[in-house]
Amino acid sequence: MPENPQPIPTIDHALDHFISHASGDGITLNDALSHLGSGGFCFVAFLLAVPFIQPIPLGPLTMICGMSFMIIGGQMARGKTNATLPKKAGDLLIHGHLWLKVLGFCRSILKFTRRFTKERYSILVTGERAERFVGWLILIGGFLLAIPGAYLPLNNFFPALMIIFACIGWLERDGLMIIISLFWGAVTLLYFAVLATTLLFFGNQIAMWFSSFMG
Q1: Contact criterion met (CB below 8 Å) for 34 and 68
Q2: Of 61, 89, 124, 204, which residue is least crowded by CB atoms under 10 Å?
Q3: Is 149 a residue whose pLDDT tops 70?
Q4: Which secondary structure element, helix H or strand E, spans residue 203, and what is its range?
């Protein structure tokens, strides 16, 4: 790796770069961040969120990635120019068939979203205040992702969509994607509220049944 690599200018160049490394010796997330410069926040968050776009929880990886989203989002929200991850997450190696599938899926997502993305609502994707706001969206999405859900389906899916649309909005300069990210954040909160209410209701019903049975 060069000591002072030049930042890769677009998400497309970044994907090409990481696909070539993943099919070779691999590249760690921290090395990836060193290549991306200020664009690293959203690209790495986007990359880490993609595996959660499916209904099955990913166990311990959920907590590691959730913490990574909170760290990346927090750094972006504080106005840092380069993202850094703790050693355990930063040393994660992008290498092999699984990561090539993830990177390929990233391309598919971008190909699909570019059918309707364009530069608009620039107030949401321009300037320091907008950048900090996107950082908060990633941070909150990471927090929601990390909430234990007893391995229930979709408890990772909705927060991941919140993070992905925030990142696409920033990378593609499309403020509408930021609004959609907020929508998925609201859906996530509603999902957890319904889940908590349901568990509380059935918990009370079981407690009442058990009390009457014992009595």
Answers
A1: no
A2: 204
A3: no
A4: helix 175-214
Q: How far is CA 62 from CA 195, 197, 209, in A?
A: 19, 23, 35
**Does the pLDDT value for residue 85 go beyond 60?**
yes
Give the per-residue pLDDT at 211: 64
The DSSP line for 65-87 is HHHHHHHHHHHHHTT-SS----H
Roughly how many angstroms between the first and final C-alpha of the chain, as a whole number?
A: 71
- Scored b (16 or more CB within 10 A) or e, 67-86 reads bbbbbbbebbbeeeeebebe
Range of the domain at 172: 11-208
Q: Give ∠ CA 36-29-9 in degrees, rounded to 5.
A: 15
Radius of gyration of the chain (CA): 19
Q: With bands split at pLDDT 50, 70 and 90, how would you rate the model's confidence at 155?
A: confident
- Prediction pTM value: 0.80
Q: Which helix (H) or strand (E) holds 94?
A: strand 93-94
Residue 6 lies in a domain: no
Looking at residue 84, what is its pLDDT?
Answer: 74
Expressed in percent and rounded to 5, the helix, strand and coil fractions of the chain are 70, 5, 25
- Give the chain's domain count: 1
